[in-house]
Amino acid sequence: MDLPLLEQDFIMIRPYHRADSDAVLDLWLKASLQAHDFVPQAFWHEQLTAMRDHYLPQAETLVLEENDQVLGFVSLHEQRLAALFVSPHAQGRGLGRQLLDEAKRRRDRLELGVYCANARAAAFYRANGFVTVAETHDPHTGQPELTMRWSRE
Question: Rounded to two decimals, what is the model's pTM?
Answer without folding.
Answer: 0.90
